[in-house]
Design goal:
Blueprint (H helix, E strand, L loop, with lengths): L6 E3 L4 H11 L7 E3 L2 E3 L3 H15 L4 E3 L5 E2 L1 H8 L3 H10 L5 E3 L2 E5 H25 L6
Antiparallel strand pairs: 1-4, 2-3, 5-7, 6-7
Helix pairs in contact: 1-2, 3-4
Length: 139
């Protein structure tokens, strides 16, 4: 599922595409400047930028879209710090939303993060309630 609507960009004019193709030929050293500051991209981001530029250099139209990361139940359980079985039971009860890919469950990373935040709030509320009760004076 896209987080932000995809953006379509038409292919470059032939002359611009050819210039970009020559610039990319034999090099994957891409330097990114933002407000005059150089940023080194991690390999995955660099590869995505090179792929995008390569498509433009061939005169292709390009669609850019973001997607929400989907986790397996094992990945989601590890992120949440709970057992795989406990997580599956929570999805069965509807406590954590789940999507199916065939018979395989997939859980949005955002759903796990939201659940963890809710657990943190619940724990804090319990601690505060315990502290407010405090030790009782003898009668």
């Amino acid at each position: 599922m896209a987080l932000i609507a995809p953006r379509m960009t038409a292919g470059l004019p032939v002359e611009d595409a050819e210039k970009l193709q020559r610039a990319l030929a034999g090099s994957h050293d891409i330097t990114v400047f933002v407000d005059g500051t150089v940023h080194r991209l991690p390999p995955q981001a660099r590869d995505a930028v090179v792929d995008l530029l390569s498509r433009f250099s061939r005169g292709e139209a390009v669609a850019v879209s973001s997607v929400e990361e989907m986790l397996t139940t094992s990945q989601a359980a590890e992120l949440a710090g709970i057992s795989h079985t406990y997580l599956r039971n929570m999805t069965d009860r509807g406590e954590i939303p789940v999507e199916y890919r065939g018979t395989h469950r997939r859980i949005r990373r955002a759903a796990i993060v939201a659940w963890l935040e809710e657990q943190k709030k619940t724990d804090q509320a319990k601690r505060q309630a315990t502290e407010n009760d405090g030790p009782r004076a003898p009668e």
